[in-house]
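In response to a reviewer's request, we include the raw inputs and outputs for one of the modeled complexes. The two entities were modeled together in a single run.
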Amino acid sequence: MVTVPIQALDAAARDRLFLEARTANKWQDRPVSDRTLHELYDLLKMGPTSANCSPARLLFLRTPEAKERLRPALSSGNLDKTMTAPVTVIVAHDPAFYDLLPKLFPHADAKSWFTSSPALAETTAFRNGTLQGAYLILAARAVGLDAGPMSGFDNAKVDAEFLAAEGWKSNFLVNLGYGDPAGLFPRSPRLDFDEACRLL
Amino acid sequence: MVTVPIQALDAAARDRLFLEARTANKWQDRPVSDRTLHELYDLLKMGPTSANCSPARLLFLRTPEAKERLRPALSSGNLDKTMTAPVTVIVAHDPAFYDLLPKLFPHADAKSWFTSSPALAETTAFRNGTLQGAYLILAARAVGLDAGPMSGFDNAKVDAEFLAAEGWKSNFLVNLGYGDPAGLFPRSPRLDFDEACRLL
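The model returned the following structure tokens for the whole complex.
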């Protein structure tokens, strides 16, 4: 039996990631640097995906011009917080992600698993792109940002406006910045262990 | 302008969650307690979901009997590591998650958003159940466990064997335990920022 030290996170880190973190709806007047976005990506890219397929594609909208292109796709409830966020990320995925598998997963002919099954490819892109979107939310918290994820928008409009040239598909949006606590809603309840889990 | 202290995670925590964490394929002979599984759930349940819908349902397979029920659904490449893992989690979701929205999201009639659109309900369950599966992977690392997520298995067999009574649907599997570094594969490359990201 090998013995490797267990390195659980301390209470402050658990608070930062899960227990005290909140979805931001209002933002401090404090910019997010491109350097921080690179730092964010360098964390989230390391999260696991199936056969390392890494299908997520991320558009970081930082300028007023980019935000204006997004505006027509937003639902009314998401409009103000998104237009005022320092950065809004379009979390998308590449349906043809398998073209990069010879680089990403060189030990097997993984590309053929997906070119032979369009349904598997579509499910894999959505599942793993979503996993990477979750890694983005938690990596944002890890680098000191607050996140505001949302799926209330018109995916087809976003795809047409931003993603048509590369053929990518939008999944959800995440506002990034430094949250203003004045914009927080009361915390909503979660399901108890026995409601959501089974021990077998 | 409010000023709230930024609390980014330190290097050790970033290593534990993202940079040094690895998908485990071999396990130390060290059990995972039910208390640790509750600790895990109490972190992951706090991660954000759309309208707090929390569709994930988690089956923790701990006993040899439960593992044997899973065996026929596993692909050959995932068999040994799964049968020897202290715990295997079936990450599933409840397609009728919206029935709990009056409890989870009491400020609006969110249930009607989904009962009026089965396609939206299905996409929302899969997307948000997957987000919660990613929270589980990172929460496992946060409590000192190693994770081994995989989607190489027969979902229909798992649904029939474990989930038929409640109508839940399997998404992916995650082995949990304390990894043996002897089972690690060399790290695979990730996409560079410019391959996966756009700054607009």
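As requested, we also summarize the result in words. Strands of chain B lie at 56-61, 87-93, 146-150, 169-177, 197-199. The CA atoms of residues 54 and 191 of chain B lie 30 Å apart.
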